[in-house]
Amino acid sequence: MAGRVSLTRSTSLASPTKMAALASSPFIFPSRTTPSFSFASSSPTSLSSLKCLTSFSPISHLFFNQAQRRTQVRLSNGAYSTVFTPKSFASNPDQLKSAREDIRQLLKTKFCHPILIRLGWHDAGTYNKSIEEWPQRGGANGSLRFEVELKHAANAGLVNALKLLQPIKDKYSGLTYADLFQLAAATAVEEAGGPKLPMKYGRLDVSGPDQCPEEGRLPDAGPPSPADHLRQVFYRMGLNDKEIVALSGAHTLGRSRPERSGWGKPETKYTKDGPGEPGGQSWTVQWLRFDNSYFKDIKERKDEELLVLPTDAVLFEDPSFKVYAEKYAEDQEAFFKDYAEAHAKLGNLGAKFDPPEGIVIDDGSPKPQPEKFEAAKYSTGKRELSDTMKQKIRSEYEAFGGSPDKPLQSNYFLNIIIIIGVLALLTSLLGN
């Protein structure tokens, strides 16, 4: 397989003020035609400080094909140094696993689950199914790392998510930005209590800012006709009504800040104390826990402290959307199942994989099953036991601490004999 050369600047990135507060909504993407809808909680950060991500830097992220090996060239103290690593695929499976552990630690300290989900979604959400060519079709290709796309109104504040992940990217050279964004989003969902996502990796990165999609492919928060707008945007990606509603459920995480998005309150009783930088308005009470609270709260509309956007309310107003929203409000397991499928599908949109089948980093081997209860195992007789006798033995067996999935460690009938002997001895003593 072919390798690539990556030219990056090794300059370290300064952390934004109170980076722990980078909770943001993962779902809605604003445009310039409506109030900005971005939920990053930290103070605005100058793009000029993110030199390794700028599209104007001569040391941009350029990738070239090369046989048998991958070469990474870094600029350090004014000089280039070349590091050779064995060629595998677009991303190294071992480094993907290690990076996931680093992301888990990041989530524990920075509480940045929502903004990492938003980052992955925004990179993938530019996909246009009517365009066949890569990368013109958009999608999960790492283009969001370039300044020209970061400046899109829908991506306001996502520079902070890039700054959170850049140290991990620097640590793992055998990892593409496209994979890193999707890995971070999936890990954030799972670590917040959400479902296990059937993700695959091996996405290729675009080579430069000229390959970024044009602005305007992402949804708005408050369009004149919310249902029509959602369908227009998500149908373009190849997603259906069920997937639109399921993905909307990710609003169970995050907050909206009016000074950045034009939506929400400056703070509520649920956000005034953080975690991280306080403030903003959340959709749910526990806005860092992934569950089906979003659908319950939108349906009831009883708590004025919780946010309801036009694109949220329409889920219970549009007849087709309402079928799924009602279902998810009542059945979290159904929501988790549909969300996991929709999220994985979104993360693959427009991606070009190397290897073509992708890389799965989760161990798919079946877990050992506990031993099942079989009554015949606890009988020394050769004759097959009747169903009635099996049930009786099973009941007695469970009464002594066994279970259908966990046989007693000691011999069952030996225990019975011992107990009978003890009872006989006690009876004899009492009789005397």
TrEMBL record:
Basic and acidic residues bias (residue ranges): 256-275
Enzyme class: oxidoreductase
GO molecular function terms attached to this record: heme binding; L-ascorbate peroxidase activity; metal ion binding
CDD domains: ascorbate_peroxidase
Domain of life, per lineage: Eukaryota
Main location: plastid
EC number per UniProt: 1.11.1.11
Family: Belongs to the peroxidase family. Ascorbate peroxidase subfamily.
Descriptive protein name: L-ascorbate peroxidase
